[in-house]
Amino acid sequence: MSGRKQFDVDEAVDKAMAVFWQRGYADASLDVLGTATGLGRGSLYGAFGSKDELFRRALDRYSATYGARYEHALTAHPGDPVRAIEAFFEVILARIDDPAVPKGCLIAQSAAQAAVLTSNSAAHVRGLLDLQHARIRAALDDPHADPAMLDDLATYIVAVNQALAVLSRAGASDAELRAVARLACETVANRLIPAD
Question: Where is each HTH tetR-type domain found (predicted)?
């Protein structure tokens, strides 16, 4: 259409995702989002309806981007849940170490701000954490293990992942983060491999 500036919606969501990831929902004002995306308020509202909807689209983009990597790591070692969890943490540590993206994790950042999110967005964040739990639980599946223990172990791995994100934002070193991941993998091994 002549006279109207066209923009790439996917690119705008990517740029908004970086803002929410770096600043959190509360500090990602429409002015900051507009500057990052190059869109005025009218265009933001026209394309996304609301800041809240843009936030959920950014969460979905983040989940699709990194969730696929987690899924690959967790399914690449069938029958070897310890190696699957090691691969999962390798992907997480690579993301944390990537200088092209903010430190931490958008989902962890968003979960920490649940009190200021709308109920729809808070539920969306919780749903993404539940999805991560389901992926990890599937990788841990062992017909010989107690299902309740496997559920608890999956919750533990989700918690360690979120803790790594928080620690990375607080300036923890790569060595410190790797030590946490290593201990988590040892815990998984100790819970899944019966003692002789």
Answer: 6-66
Rounded Cα–Cα distance for residues 152 and 26 (Å):
32
The per-residue pLDDT of the chain, averaged, comes to: 92
Task: Answer yes or no: are the C-beta atoms of 81 and 191 closer than 8 Å.
Answer: no
Q: How far apart are the first and last CA of the chain?
A: 72
pLDDT in tens, 92-108: 999 999 999 998 999 99
Secondary structure (DSSP) of 16-44: HHHHHHHH-TTT--HHHHHHHHT--HHHH
pLDDT digits (tens, 9 = 90+) for 156-185: 999 999 999 999 999 999 999 999 999 999
- Please state the pTM of the whole predicted model: 0.89
CA distance 140 to 46: 44
Cα 100 to Cα 18: distance, rounded to the nearest angstrom: 10
Dist CA 163 CA 90 (whole Å) = 15
Q: Where are the domains of the chain?
A: 58-192
- Residue 85's identity, in one-letter code, is I
Helix (H) or strand (E) holding 81: helix 81-97
Domain 58-192 has CATH 1.10.357.10: yes
Tokens encoding 57: 């689209």
- Helix (H/G/I), strand (E/B), else coil: 196: coil
